[in-house]
Structures are given as structure tokens and as C-alpha cells.
Amino acid sequence: MTQIQAWAAYSPKQKLQLITLDNGELGAEEVEIIVTHCGLCHSDLSMINNEWGLSSYPLIAGHEVVGRISAMGSAVKGLNLGQRVGVGWNSGCCMHCHECVSGQQHLCAHVSPTIAGGHHGGFASKMRAHWLWVMPLPEQLDSRSAGPLLCGGVTVFAPLLKFNIKPTDHVGIVGIGGLGHLGLRFANAWGCEVTAFTTSESKIDEAKGFGAHHVISSYDRASILTAANSLDLLLITINQPLDWAIWLKTLKPNGRMHVVGAVLEPMPIPAIELIFGQKRVSGSPTGSPSVLATMIEFAARHHIAPKVEHFQMREVNDALAHLAAGKARYRVVLDADF
Prior knowledge:
The protein has 11 helices and 17 strands.
């Protein structure tokens, strides 16, 4: 048994409280990690506030975890005590369904999100995960900024891999925030021509610094349509409803609009735009362990890291307010100080 400290939410939209809890016996296939850093993702905020109807309380958020292995169950494979590792959105799966055995464990019907179903995340002195979902981190990745790669990073990286995006393709990124700025960095390093769409003039120069070859205002229809018929992939990273018909017009024939931002409202899509352009609309969550490992290797090779702001873990309520107010530039990382 392990006594740990954690910052817990007891109801939606309330401040987190510091608690002590017993972690119970370590499972045979579980890994226990001493948390050193934990990214703060908008999904943490959504779960704390039960925006998706998935939350149970008390809820200990944090799913961009970086730390070192402090204990391992008897059946853990491929890891070592003291090893520097990370855990993202998922921390377990059934290991025997079609999705799991075909390498799509993140689509398992019984996948275990790190901060749902009674499992607790990285706003804690220690956390646990199944060994398959515990990712070794190479030396090239700094612990202080690696956390957001494990959720935000793989979320925007996976479509490049899944849809066989070529270095000659033109990729558009809508929304230059926590996800979008990483999308720019990955797409640029992938070799693509990259266009950023933003409503913020203050982000134009930064977007170029992140890898955008072109930056277009997304305030109005006319600006968006300057990119008409130019994109092979349009990545939607924001969680707000848009004029989807206009955005579909930015795609080339056979182009794809891919949604990774959690837009809660239904999306009206004009079928005629899909038919005549043979276009596609899709979405995806984070990624499987193999995709996570590939993303980590690619990020290390190309020196890709998020731009981060740091708060101490004891400042978690201030950090949540900072994120909720839209002030994060561009990801927030909590440094453990238990």
C-alpha cells in the first residue's frame, strides 16, 4: 500500500483540495510512478467540470504525466525501476479485443482513461498505469516540457501518420493554441507546406515561428476562402462550432477535414461539398502505445517541444483559472512540489 497526496475535485467548477489517500496494493501489471511534472490540458478542465458527463468524484486530474518508476508489479515487461517515463490520456485497456490485438488499443471498448472511471491522474505525488501505456522518454526530451506531448502532441501527430500525409502535402491548422501550435511544429517537421488559421493577430509571428509558412485570419469568410481548394489536410484543433461549409471549401479534391478539438455541438456538413469534391470528414482521439512511441521518437529527433508556462503543483487552482481564461501560451505544466 502507498500513501499519496493529490489535488482532488469534489464537484464541478469548485477549487481542488489537497488530500491524502491510500493507493492500495500494486497490481501485477501495474507501474507506480513518482510524478515530477504534469501537463495541464483543457481536457482536465472539461473533466473537472464534467462537461462530457464522464466524471466521477472525487476526481484527480492530470494525464500528461512525467516522472520516474518507483515500483513495478511482478508481470511488468520492458521497464526498469528509476526509469524516466510518461503517461498520457489512457492508462489501461483490455489487451484481448480486436482493437487491442490489432494495435489500436486506444480504441478498445474498455480502454481506461487516466482520469476517469475512478482512476487517478498526475495531480498527485504518485500515479499508476498498466505497463503497456507507460512510455520511456529519451534524453533529448526535457522533463519540464515533455508532458504535453503525451496528449496534445500525439493528438495532432497521429493524423499525419494514420492518413499517410506526404511531405509534399499542404496542411492547414485551425486554432493556434495548445494543440494547434504543436500541430504546426509537427507538420513542418514532416516536410509539409503549412498554413495556420487564427483569429488572433497577436499570434501571427508566433505561428510562423512554430512552423507556419502562411498565416490566414479566420475572422471572416473572405479571408478563409483565400485558401480555397489548397489543402490536403485541414486539422481542426479548437472546440468551438464553425461554419463547416466554408472550411470544407479549403480542401482540394480528396482532401480531409479532421477534427481533434472536442466540439460538443452537432456539425452540419453539406453532403454536396463532400460528393463533388470526394472529400472526407473524420476525427480521432489521442493514439495507441505504438503511435505514442513513434511520436516520441519523432519529437526527439526533430527537437519538437511545446511552448510551456510553469506553475507549482500547489498553484493548481491558479493554473486552472489561467487556462480557463484563455491566457495559456501555449501549454501549462505543473511542477510537483509535494
